[in-house]
Amino acid sequence: LGEDAPRYPDRPVPDWYRDAKFGVFVHWGLYSVAGWAPPRRPGEDVPVELEYSHHQYAEWYANTLRIPGSPTAAYHESSFGVGTSYEDLADAWTAERYDPDGWMRLFAACGARYVVPTAKHHDGFCLWDTATTGFSSVHRGPRRDVVAELAGAARSAGLRFGLYYSGALDWHVSHFPPIRSLTDLFTHRRNDPAFARHCFEQVRELVEAHRPDVLWNDIDWPDSAKAAGPYSLAELFEHYYDLVPEGVVNDRWGVPHLGFRTREYRTETGTPAWAWEATRGLGASFGYNRAEDDTHLIDATELVHLLVDTVAKNGNLLLNISPRGDGSLPEAQVARLRELGRWLAAHPDAVYGTRPWHRHAEPVGAPLRYTVRPDGTLNVIALDPAHGDFRLPADLLGRPGAHWGEGAAEIGPDGTVVIPEALRHLPAAVLTLPPS
Ligand SMILES: C[C@@H]1N[C@H](CN)[C@@H](O)[C@H](O)[C@@H]1O
What we know:
This protein is an alpha/beta fold and 436 residues long. The chain has helices at 15-20, 31-34, 61-64, 71-80, 100-109, 146-156, 182-187, 193-210, 233-243, 300-312, 331-346; strands at residues 22-26, 114-120, 160-166, 214-218, 248-249, 261-264, 276-280, 315-321, 355-361, 368-372, 378-383, 390-391, 403-404, 407-408, 416-417, 428-433. A hairpin with a 6-residue loop joins strand 9 (355-361) and strand 10 (368-372). It is globular, with a radius of gyration of 23 Å. The ligand C[C@@H]1N[C@H](CN)[C@@H](O)[C@H](O)[C@@H]1O is lined by residues 57, 59-60, 218-219, 264, 279, 286. The ligand C[C@@H]1N[C@H](CN)[C@@H](O)[C@H](O)[C@@H]1O binds next to loops.
């Protein structure tokens, strides 16, 4: 870094974030009106040359639509007619079933401790009362300050409130050809000072109006803001932390300052020492995709396993929900969220406030995950207990006081742990071992 490179703060990730473990991501925006992408089931892939023309992310609709011959271009014309542009959809966005309080009460009931809605995605449509553009939910479509309503509803529901911002891409103010490759993704974006100021001013509005507990930037930030000076990223971070002392940022700003690291539809292989967050949709898309059905969604048991595996590896899970354009929540997604919430409500001490053990799982043998409570109690979490009894690893043999929640656990001299019949239907059963 040159001598004029700005100095970035070195801040620990706040305990509230590390203790929270589970958040809900909300991708809701103009793209939710069309709400369509080529659906993709778990494990399905497309050849790399079709990666962007057949993008599975429905929130990429504005880009995919511009790729000649793409399925999205065909869907758009057949659904909205040849003369309708993506931006015309802004006036068709009524959000008549949008219920911010209902959303947040549901997320809190499902065990989320924080929520991160999109304030502006790559399409450039802003969901707050911004002075920087008329392309917003206040000036067009819903004619509502969505971010303000979500911030109030989240905090009334006892949730920490974060905001997603697309710092690298804003297709409303950029005039590049459509992104058709990973190379395009990093070249078809503005890095000029005018755009850097535009982004700075938008995020400053959001920070000053809503004091978001999380600033979740995506992909990168305009390069011209990475040197010291007015409208620089360093200045924005300083302003943010002054106003939000317990605030935290992610790792997608393109500078040597980060809070938690992010993994999108991926996980960590081991247990990193740093705080990180796994994020994914319930299906293959973050934005609502009407072409997805139950077979495209992760099932509830896998969801519990994903959360437990992530927490055992020192991570948080930021699970996305995709509201429809009218503001209603897809029932199949809500059902999975509620199922996860039921498991979490019955096993809060296995997750919230825990920290990793010295290993997250067993290299071979029983599918176990480990977390440690603040008092040193070890949670031995058996995934899929229906598969029956398992053997405790040698370093846990002989530790007294093993419990299954209410009752003492039966452990044979060879370490065989009998899973009570009453627990075998659960996505995961939690055996506790008192501090050694
Ligand atoms: C959380 C996801 N991040 C990607 C960029 N990696 C976005 O392109 C995508 O639309 C979604 O917002």
